[in-house]
Structure to design on (298 residues):
């Protein structure tokens, strides 16, 4: 087993989101933990969104601004009263500015077990290519 | 500015610590208990913060008339990597979170998600039916349902007119 898998997970508070735009919706807003990595052909965003279902997730890409919004519906039934509350639930919001040009028609999003995997393929022109410098 | 005690002492002729040099009376113990409960309740309700980082995973516990519900946010864990055991009145949640390895050529811009092992034990209150504990995992949330024993359920007491 790899060394990075033997460490113990530490409990941490959720990061409250600091939004540049004012929220028109009350309730807590959190910043989800994400991994973003890039290969020659695609950019992939993996986000932890526990409690978010596919119909409560909004992924929006316009003018290179990628916005992820996930709403968490309360799981508690109407009769349930709190005994211990260690974490809060609310909306997840995160925005990224993409430097690469993305092929919007080929974007793939997969949400399973509270993890979103968003694959954003680069358009042909944005893929790295060799530029030949011609002598004048 | 004079320093003032954050709580009001019980009324008395002169200020004197009520707990020095004598046995605490039942009233004093009761008062101390209430005062401490009030202080702790304020701490919880006014700060708006979650409790300080404790043991992973953080849990929320709620109850209704028939059940206790223990919930934890565990995104991206397979059911086989989770183990929930109940012995006497102790519930243990343990598991391992592994992240799939991406292709070697990938270069990372952000790496915030963490992998690792976790285990947490909870003491269940008396009066729960541990043989009927059930658990489900949906959308990255683990929910453990602990039924209350019949004797622990609230019963309505009828008041008889005299």
């Amino acid at each position: 087993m790899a060394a990075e898998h033997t460490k113990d997970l530490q409990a941490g508070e959720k990061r409250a989101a600091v939004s540049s735009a004012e929220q028109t919706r009350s309730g807590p807003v959190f910043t989800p933990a994400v991994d973003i990595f890039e290969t020659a052909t695609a950019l992939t965003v993996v986000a932890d969104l526990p409690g978010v279902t596919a119909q409560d997730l909004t992924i929006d890409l316009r003018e290179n601004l990628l916005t992820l919004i996930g709403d968490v519906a309360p799981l508690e039934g109407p009769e349930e009263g709190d005994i211990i509350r260690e974490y809060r639930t609310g909306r997840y919001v995160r925005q990224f500015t993409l430097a690469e040009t993305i092929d919007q028609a080929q974007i793939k999003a997969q949400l399973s077990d509270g993890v979103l995997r968003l694959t954003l393929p680069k358009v042909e022109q944005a893929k790295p290519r060799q530029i030949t410098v011609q002598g004048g | 500015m004079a320093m003032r005690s954050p709580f009001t002492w019980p009324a008395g002729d002169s200020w004197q610590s009520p707990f020095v040099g004598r046995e605490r009376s039942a009233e004093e113990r009761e008062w101390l208990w209430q005062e401490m409960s009030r202080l702790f309740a304020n701490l919880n309700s006014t700060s708006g913060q979650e409790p300080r980082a404790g043991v992973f995973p953080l849990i929320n516990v709620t109850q209704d008339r028939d059940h206790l519900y223990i919930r934890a946010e565990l995104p991206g864990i397979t059911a086989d990597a989770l183990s929930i055991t109940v012995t006497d009145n102790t519930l243990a949640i343990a598991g391992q979170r592994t992240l799939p390895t991406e292709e070697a050529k990938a270069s990372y811009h952000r790496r915030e998600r963490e992998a690792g092992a976790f285990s947490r034990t909870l003491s269940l209150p008396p009066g729960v039916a541990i043989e009927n504990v059930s658990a489900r995992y949906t959308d990255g949330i683990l929910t453990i349902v602990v039924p209350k024993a019949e004797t622990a359920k609230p019963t309505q007491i009828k008041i008889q007119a005299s």
